[in-house]
Amino acid sequence: MGTTARRVILALCASSSGAAGLQIPFLSPTSQTPVQVANDTKPLINSTAIQELISGERLMVRAKKMFEIAKLGESEYNHPTRVIGSAGHLGTLNYIYETILQLGDYYTISNQSFPAVSGNVYESRLVLGNHVSKSAAPMGLTPPTKDKQPVHGDVVLVKNDGCAYSDYPAEVAGNIAFILRGTCPFGTKSEHAGRAGAVAAIVYNYEKDNVQGTLGNPSPFHVATFGLSGEEAEPIIKKLKNKDRVDAIAYIDAEVKSILTVNIIAQTTQGDPDNCVMLGGHSDSVAEGPGINDDGTGTMSLLEVATQLTKFSVNNCVRFAWWAGEEEGLLGSDYYIYSLPAVENKKIRLFMDYDMMASPNFAYQIYNATNAVNPTGSEELRDLYIDWYTKQGLNYTFIPFDGRSDYDGFIRNGVPGGGIATGAEGIKTKKEEKMFGGKAGEWYDPCYHQLCDNVGNVNEKAWVVNTKLIAHSVATYARSFKGFPKRSSLTASSIYDRQTKYHGSKLFI
Ligand SMILES: *[C@@H]1O[C@H](CO)[C@@H](O)[C@H](O)[C@H]1NC(C)=O
Ligand SMILES: *[C@@H]1O[C@H](CO)[C@@H](O)[C@H](O)[C@H]1NC(C)=O
Ligand SMILES: *[C@@H]1O[C@H](CO)[C@@H](O)[C@H](O)[C@H]1NC(C)=O
Ligand SMILES: *[C@@H]1O[C@H](CO)[C@@H](O)[C@H](O)[C@H]1NC(C)=O
Ligand SMILES: *[C@@H]1O[C@H](CO)[C@@H](O)[C@H](O)[C@H]1NC(C)=O
Ligand SMILES: [Zn+2]
After folding, report:
1. How far, in Å, are 106, 131, 148, 301 from residue 463 at the CA level?
2. Assigned CATH topology for domain 3-117+258-499
3. CB within 10 Å: which end of the chain, N or C, has fewer?
4. What atom of ligand 3 comes closest to residue 43's alpha carbon?
């Protein structure tokens, strides 16, 4: 993804009305030293004190409000949703903006609008030989088949892993390319298949499992593309290698839309603006449901911590972000960090990601961010979470820090990062049932990316615990960065590059 192109189209917008002194916290030549508000007598931020202000009651009031907002999406989607471009998402943005605006001049708020692509698959089917495929899943951001109608063709095996155009035999033209997963992104394979004249493409797994992937940034050469399980692919590969013919019918009715959407950034007017604590959650949901846990909870935890923080003074600046387009592939957070000039990047001492704070069948999960793989400081942040859960007498687990949420762009641009989560479509183990309660053998969030991710889908206890921990993380660094490593690099280690297969919730490679 190009960074220079993004920089050119960066658009920031700050209000001249509303609370006095609203200003852009970065990129503005006049904003190096925010005007200090009158020396008020607020006590210095204190972790214990701000944690005591976090209550489940207040969070649940916000959750109910968030669900009402998601219902605004019903007119277009026939069910509640806060997906980018929907009225539910616009309502969420207004709610965030208004909540911060009401806190007066404690924060400066800015809207960062950016172009985003949003894909919807309305219907799809893949028939292989004489049976309908069970595992075939249309890739995120796939185009439809021609005229949104079924297309017919022979399945044609592509050589190697389909990462070079020369891997695609001439017979691919007018037929369906059958490509092994791996080495290069799904988007590259789909593009090669399209250039070679395929009417559709299938990327089959090297493992038994299904492939839930995304093509990423649209290309005019992309063709309708499915992911297929290795299990279903095996007999087909056998036939093709025997020179037996396999015909197929592929059908995808889908649409890829380009829209403008908005990141909202709020920064304390007080505190050292050259040393910022940054944290974020994502304001959008998937199209399938209201996203109250994913990531309504992170969004609302941030709003609540931002609200309670105003009762204190801070030594270091605190910058909250509500990203848009996370579900389309981390679009908002990528846009923000890749378009930030180096001098501004270095003012961010760390970035903390808060995505899915209250899964119903939760585990207290800490991203296994280490200094060996991630920018120095990531491990110190990881240890802050460990220490806190330990002091509370709570169990925790480590989870891979592999690009599944908005921290990815920060890590790739040298900003130390980390965060906590409570689990998505992973399965709780027997051991974890003993550690956290809940039910082994089931997803941490059985409503992940579904219609039932509503108010009833949040575990209030876990939400309170994690919001207190968010408050603790903010309090600790807003008070002092003593002992926390200074910023150095502006890039990720090559190890991170190699280990990362996700970009958002979907695989891209
Ligand atoms: C920023 O975005 C919010 C939410 O969409 C909107 O309510 C507000 O008017 C916008 N402010 C400016 C200055 O554009
Ligand atoms: C700000 O207020 C605090 C607490 O009242 C006081 O100790 C401090 O001296 C004041 N600082 C300035 C610069 O007036
Ligand atoms: C923080 O606040 C708690 C009360 O909530 C108080 O007992 C404690 O002394 C405070 N700590 C500091 C360092 O001010
Ligand atoms: C955490 O990551 C490090 C590599 O940085 C690895 O050595 C360690 O095994 C990981 N721990 C867990 C529990 O995944
Ligand atoms: C932590 O996990 C252990 C089992 O490993 C369990 O016995 C204990 O009750 C758990 N603690 C809490 C607070 O759930
Ligand atoms: Zn999420």
Report:
1. 25, 45, 43, 8
2. Aminopeptidase (3.40.630)
3. N
4. 14
Q: Which two tokens stand for residue 49?
A: 């004190």
The set of catalytic residues is 326
What 3-state DSSP class applies to 258? Answer: strand
| Nearest by Cα to 298 from 467, 446, 418, 455 | 467
Residue 79 phi/psi, 5-degree rounding, is -160, 165
Burial grade of 290 (CB within 10 A; 0-12, 13-18, 19 or more): buried
Report DSSP state, residue 296. I
Residue 72 CA to ligand 1 centre (angstroms): 18
The one-letter code for the residue type at 47 is S
Going 319 to 23 to 19 to 324, the CA torsion angle's sign is negative
Distance from C-alpha of 111 to C-alpha of 93, rounded to nearest angstrom: 10
Which ligand has the nearest atom to the CA of 262? 1
Cis upstream peptide for 295 (omega within 30°): yes
Q: Is the CB of 46 under 6 A from ligand 3?
A: yes
Strand 316-323 and strand 247-268: pairing?
antiparallel
Ligand 2 mean position to 322 CA, how many Å? Answer: 33
Q: At what angle do helices 87-101 and 56-70 cross, to 10 degrees?
A: 140
Closest by CA to 349, choosing from 478, 495, 493, is 478
Asked whether the domain spanning 130-245 has the same topology as the one spanning 3-117+258-499, the reply is: no
Q: What is the token pair recorded at 318?
A: 């605190």
Structural element, H or E, at residue 366: strand 365-367
Positions of the chain with pLDDT lower than 70, given as ranges? 1-40
User: 319 — phi, psi (to 5°)?
Assistant: -125, 115
Full DSSP string of 117-142: EEEEEEEEEEEETTEE-SS-EEPBTP
> Closest ligand to 461 CA?
5
CATH architecture of 130-245: 3-Layer(bba) Sandwich (3.50)
Is residue 41 within 6 Å of ligand 2 at its C-beta? yes
19 CA to centre of ligand 1 in angstroms? 13
